[in-house]
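INPUT
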Amino acid sequence: MLNRKKQPTITDAVDFELKLKKCEQYTLHNKVPVYCLDAGIQEVVMIEWVFYAGNWYEQQNIVAATTNFLLKNGTSQKTAFQINEHFEFYGAYLNRSCYNETATITLHCLSKQVGALLPVVAELITDSVFPESELSIYKQNQKQRLEVNLKKCDFIANRLIDEYIYGIYHPYGKYTSTLDYDAIEKSALEQFFQKFYREGKCIIFAAGKLPADLDKQFENHFGSLPLQQRSIPNIQYNIQSAENKKYRIINDADGVQGAIRLARPFPNRHHPDFQKAHILNNIFGGFFGSRLMSNIREDKGYTYGIHSFIQNHMKETSWMISTEAGRDVCEATIEEVYKEMKKLCDEPIDEEELHLVRNHMIGGILGDLDGPFQLIARWKNYILNGIDENYFYTSIHNIKTTSAEELQALAQKYLQPEAFYELVVI
Amino acid sequence: MIQYNRFQLDNGLIVLVHEDNATPMAVVNVLYDVGARDEDPAKTGFAHLFEHLMFGGSINIPDYDEPLRRAGGDNNAYTTNDLTNYYCQLPAANIETAFWLESDRMLSLAFSERSLAVQRKVVCEEFKEHYINKPYGDVWHKMRALAYQVHPYRWMTIGKELSHVEDATIDDVRAFFSKHYNPANAILVVAGNITTDEVKRLSEKWFGPIPSGKKYIRCIPQEPKQTEARKQLIEAEVPLDAFIKTWHMDARLDKGYYAADLISEILGGGGSSRLYQSLVKEKKLFSNLDCYHFGSMDAGLLAVEGKLVKGVSFEQVEKALHEEIEKICTTPISDNELVKVQHKTESVIAFEDMSVMSRANSLAMYELLGDASLMNTELEKYHAITAIDMLQYSQAIFRESNSNTIYYKAK
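OUTPUT
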């Protein structure tokens, strides 16, 4: 007789042996490091060029983001249209993103098309010219986009909470106004490009079903470019956290929801508490079955979703709780968040819950190691943060062994309501 | 080429197996043949609300999520206008837990009043977050209502209004379950590091004993051919004027669907597409612009949507858009453009098929369309579309009388 009440026997995920597939590394003639991971069955690749060209290095607001955005918008040989046409003709996607320390160009394409695309990427990073006409369209459209975003409570809340923690002059805390767009000039972009792309430090990551001669192609197209000529400038910023901790803001008088953000400063991944705090965060608000979700969504129905996370910053970071809740239950939501913090401080997590979270986290990593793009993303994260594969194995070890007492001690150390900035934007 | 095996249980449940031993994981995907199009017009949003309730405990298992996570797994689900799909991924060694969980909620839910009360609130917050508390959030509510007068695509998956969700009762939940949630109306796909024999054994064991249920025969009024252009002006507290226009297009399996898909790609797919180049870059009329369709199973809509650059009038954008539409209706696309959209299609399919989960999803979707093997003939179908096909299909759909236009005006 089938017993539907009893869960079939399972192998504990914590008993799995997790192996991180190694990443091949070599260096081009001009010292550009290349990291490759040949894996997967589909005939596709992802190649990423990482530059130290984030907003950390700009002297004027949004110069880094604008330079990055306009990399695709014209070289001395090609118009923006011709560049787009080239990549799109081969069914490829060329994206660029600007972060705090780094900025990237990412190519996704069919493996067989790599040869046709690399030369144009090389052209973009050596010969971008930032045409005035493109810059002016960009300014106009970005300003319009910003105007729409400023109507959204979540957008406003994300900006303000970072400002409170890091200060408006810190790369992690500053944000954009329409005036910043007006102030951008072509010459500033050219200078930034010259310093941080054309002659800047570059790292290449590639993953997927890689063409057999990819190393030769990289050497051909990138090995003799003038990259790696400059060292990364050593710039320090002071954190200027806000004094006041509590904020209530009305952005839209008719708003039916409030965007809630609670956050406290937190050390980066090199700190001994980091990995274990990550486990505590999981239990607190890191996945669908977390305490915050179970209480505030699944029990109270105050929100569609609530999450806690440690911001993915290289230097200083923060531990944040984020949700959009019904306007009339925002204060009640905050109260519940503090109650959950208090519970984690007052009572050790029981073994059953901890065991579940261990299994769930290990199962998640196992699934995440499946697929070349996820793998290279993990490696990239390690390499850019100056850590190695030992970090992976220690983190697995920590997930398997961190005790309820250690987690409770961490909660007592970090999950103290008075340490948190508190913001509601309606 | 995606390999799979197919069999059917005595109770009618269709099972597809896709073996891939390169992964340590397994995916169990259960698709139910019910979407927002099957709802009562007075109780819209129900299929989606019901999806939430599927996590509120089943007849023998008080909590769905917890045992799955204990087995190292995770899950999610989505509802569209056409279907409802549930999927979980877990280490292949623990796959039986997924069979146990999925079969129990197909057998019967717990029908908890409390879960209903909470999920009504959660879905109302979801409604607010995405459709009320965002500028332009209601634009597709309005467009659907304008473009469809008969077909249930005239409402969104989230529902026509909050009150429909708020008023849902436990009797509605029971009736919906018994009508749609049974082996006769479901497709099970298992993919990953498993064997077909093992899946057969586990399917028989866990799903075999579930009563077949009655096959739901869909009887939806199809939208009559539109004969007159429809226009609507909306004034709202938004920062910029927005423009959206749609044209009726073919259903998912019709040839016209493939032509429409490629046409939307030529018009709006990427920075070198025609509309982007002409209307955003050269004429500077729109600050952003998209051209897309939803891939819906019944006859769908092809849409062009964007925000107007300040100072530009609706008449100006209509005229410029019309010129581009004229072009695609009178001159066949170039050989270069044809090769370009073919490359793009090949690439989209290759990237889509990368993850086991997405392969499992696709197999279920194509089986619902009638035959999972359609998944392996898609590329051919796209490649069979010629420049002349696209010209003719453009002429067929881009008639003003087949169009619906909304001017979303900033107050």
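end of record. Chain A touches chain B through 75 residues (CB under 8 Å).
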